[in-house]
Amino acid sequence: MKVLSVTSELYPLVKTGGLADVAGALPLALKAHEIEVKTLVPGYPAVMRVIGKAEERLHLPDVFGAEVRVLEVEHEGLDLLVLDAPALFDRTGGPYLDQNGADYGDNWKRFALLSKIGAEIAAGAIEGWQPDLVHAHDWQAALTPLYMRHSAAAGMPSVITIHNMAFQGQFSSELFAQLSLPGPAYMESLEYYGRVSYLKGGLTSASAITTVSPSYAEEILTPEFGMGLEGVIASRVGDLYGIVNGIDASVWNPASDPLLVENYTAASLRKRAANRTAVANHFGLDDDDGPIFCVVSRLTWQKGMDLLAEAIDDIVAAGGKLAVLGTGDAALEAAMRAAAGRHNRRVGVIIGYDEQLSHLMQGGADAILVPSRFEPCGLTQLYALRYGCVPVVARTGGLADTVIDANEAALGARAATGVQFSPITADGLRQGLRRAIRLYGDAKLWTQIQKQGMKSDVSWGKSAERYAELYQRLVQKGH
Ligand code: ADP
């Protein structure tokens, strides 16, 4: 089977979050199921720099006023179709934000173009390669299924995956006229309280909707998590699937990870100590017995970072230490810096994005904190499980699905892999932290939890199989 994946991020080329990891790892995992994936990704500078010699597969002189080329190249096992449109993607900032952190004013056009070209390829624009199905990711690619419905690819099945319902791609309805869609598509598919919602366009047009964990698939049917689109989701509930993300087990493997000071396995956990010392040194923390908690996260309300800021003094008072790596809201960055200022050698904060350091933290910290208010899947707790870094997580979405709480029953059955807390408040988090610190005090129990976590199946194996089954079903059924 041939699948076109359409995404605005792709590890290892361009990443702002979990979407990139999934878009980069799933095609590799699907190879085992004889599914050939080509991935359409924008030609940002970071992509254009590394692709080297690429073959031009499509040239369109004017789409939405931009000259567009599609270049095909293989990169680290991925078959890429790079959308080379310098007028829209050759920018010095990030994929969505300019250097000052503001949204590009023409994001509506940039990602409409990505989707439009996805639909063109679905309709056979690339000579000699015709996909059987299209898989679009998040709002940035969400118009692809809609454009397909209004093209020669109208009968082809499509899947849209929601990685985070909070990001919907809403724009002024005045732009609709510029999207090259037939008039009725506005009310039928896109209209959201008088605006245009790209995500809604995908949710109403795709053959199937997936989200990245079973719990989140249920949660988005409720007003609290559905972010205003719960009604749309409810109308498609028969086509809704929750498939938990896996991780790329070759990139995230403590036995071979070159970014660790010392490699280790569950059988040689003691060697983690060298990584722990390295983390303590890097963050300027005392290298004493108290547990090192770490955070690798966007510093945002969604991630519960304000709750963490409230609980930091308690971590320190209970003998714990904290290493924070993240960027995000200015106020939360300031709160983290202030905590580091208050707690010399007990709290270390690095404001920034550092993929390499994140590996060392997973391989050295004793526990990772993920106090998200909502979490479609979450990847950091999955890396943590594999690295024997015990996850302390809010009981929500993918966190609830992937971490087994160390309650009495689970501990008795030797099944526990971490700590879940609820309610998701500062007090709930404090309670979770207290439990984690108590467990850490029992070295034997703590090692048991670490080892059990390292045994968890966090690979793409089962999840890739579920995607493969879904694709097969949709292709057999036709749209
Ligand atoms: P989200 O996609 O909502 O941000 P996920 O947990 O699904 O959350 O994925 C986040 C990804 O980004 C993980 O791979 C995590 O390690 C990485 N990440 C987040 N912040 C940083 C950071 N400051 N430095 C390095 N990696 C980070």
TrEMBL record:
InterPro entries reported for this sequence: Glyco_trans_1 (IPR001296), GS/SS (IPR011835), Starch_synth_cat_dom (IPR013534)
The biological pathway it contributes to is:
Glycan biosynthesis; glycogen biosynthesis
What's an example Gene Ontology biological process for this entry?
glycogen biosynthetic process
Q: Does the keyword Manganese apply?
A: no
Annotated ADP-alpha-D-glucose binding lies at 15
Q: Which GO terms describe its molecular function?
A: alpha-1,4-glucan glucosyltransferase (ADP-glucose donor) activity; alpha-1,4-glucan glucosyltransferase (UDP-glucose donor) activity
The record's annotation in CDD domains points to: GT5_Glycogen_synthase_DULL1-like (cd03791)
Q: Which residues form the Glycosyl transferase family domain?
A: 287-438
UniProt record similarity statement: Belongs to the glycosyltransferase 1 family. Bacterial/plant glycogen synthase subfamily.
Which named protein is this? Glycogen synthase
Q: Which gene encodes it?
A: glgA
